[in-house]
Known about the structure:
390 residues, Heat Shock Protein 90, 5 strands
Amino acid sequence: MSHVMSRPHRDDWRMAVGGLAGGVLLWALGIHPRLATDSLVLWHAPWAPLVPLMVTAACEPLRRVRPRLGLLIGTAALTLDTVTLGSLVTVVLYTDLVYAAVLYGSPAAARRIPWVTGMLTVVCGVVPAALWRDPQGLLIGVGVGVVAYAPASTGWVVRNHRDAAEAARLRAEQTALLAEMDRAQAVTTERARFARELHDMVANHLSAIAIHSTAALSLDDPKTSQNALVVIRENSVEGLAEMRRLIGFLRDSSGDHEPAPSPTLDGLGALVDGARANGLDVTLDSGHDAVPAPVELAAYRIVQESLTNALKHAAPGPVHVGLSERSGILHVRVSSPYRAGDIPRAPGSGSGLPGMRERAALLGGSFEAGSADGRWTVRAALPLSEGDPS
């Protein structure tokens, strides 16, 4: 990963100015790493060390913007410095250019520079020692290692640590994003679940209340009005009980009310009796063994919503509710009379059929509803174990 900047950093300008000032101060004090009598000194002009010093200092602002160009120019300046009396500041600034080229340069340059400087260190130590047959020739390699290989290796280590930290930060951000997505999905799923529960629990009672209150208001018959008021009261009480149960779901275990148990298929008899009290001619045919709790709740709610729809939409006639178990699948079937063009006796929200379909899909089952031969039929196949129905 390259970390090249678009323009020089202000700290790099400070390093350039500070290095140049320090080098000029050492030059003014006459402090040089070489003597005029050294055989390597070919340029004896007193101001000669200032030329490579200024060039190297000018490369400092390039250390993050154009690190490779800065290193190339700095290398030429350091080579020129070796034929003058020299400046320690030029050497120090060059080591920083090597370090920056590895740290801020391209990945290829970051891999290549330590390898090249390492090989150069070995060659500059072994070759002079072999040619001069003097172990002191190894000191040249040591000098090259200190000036070139050491900063290159340091830059490589720092770059690796920084890249690892950046990768860890990105992984942390990705993990946080996934966690937030999971949280949002969980909230959405939970809200949908409570929406289904609220609709299925309350819609049946409110539909009955709406239908019987309409009858009580439209008919001038005290007996009919009294019967309608009795049904309205019963559905109101049952609706309130269902609402309390839902509130119990929303409370935690430390609340004032513990959640009531979910309805089971054993309660279908009471559900059918309530539908009969609301005016439906319902027959129940139920034959099944033990059913898992999630399947029981789904089957109960599908029957409940189907009876609610029959109360609102069905034509006069018998309503059949059937449950049977075959090959590890609980089959639910509710059939009611249907006459196209009839006006619903109570308004609906339009979420009944989608809610039933969602309940079946969550269990890996299937759901279908439609009219045929003058009857509206709801069918659901709910697997008793995980997997799709065969």
